[in-house]
Amino acid sequence: MDAIAFTKNDNVATAIKNLSKGQTVIVILGEEKIHIELLEDVPFGHKFALMDIPKGEQVIKYGETIGIATENIKKGQYVHVHNVVGQRGVRRHRS
């Protein structure tokens, strides 16, 4: 296994070792094995898309929304601060 995802709702997986562009990785998601060809290098501990994620859509990891896609993200693409704005730790000010 090269990466992990925890729920069927996850649209990203986390690399459990350094992964290379062009590599086909296997992610087990529930009862399903998903084969993903990586479009970019993905460092250990970082994320890549399990499916296309349109701009403005939620990025879901471990069953929780961790951010919003700031651009269209393709299946197999590296997912990080360059294409996602985070939602954790953001304070909402009341008027």
Which terms would index this structure?
95 residues, mainly beta, Archaeosine Trna-guanine Transglycosylase, Chain: A, domain 4, four-stranded antiparallel sheet, three-stranded antiparallel sheet, globular, disordered C terminus
Give an overview in words.
It is a single chain. By secondary structure, the chain is mainly β. It has one domain (3-86): Archaeosine Trna-guanine Transglycosylase, Chain: A, domain 4 (Roll). The protein is 0% helix and 38% strand. It contains no helices and nine strands. The strands form three sheets. The chain has a four-stranded antiparallel sheet, with no helix packed on it. It starts with a strand and ends in a 9-residue tail after the last strand. Mean pLDDT is 90; it is low at 89-95.
Helix-strand blueprint:
Blueprint: E1 3-4, E2 12-15, E3 24-29, E4 32-37, E5 47-49, E6 58-61, E7 64-69, E8 78-79, E9 84-86
Antiparallel strand pairs: 1-2, 2-5, 3-4, 5-8, 6-7, 7-9
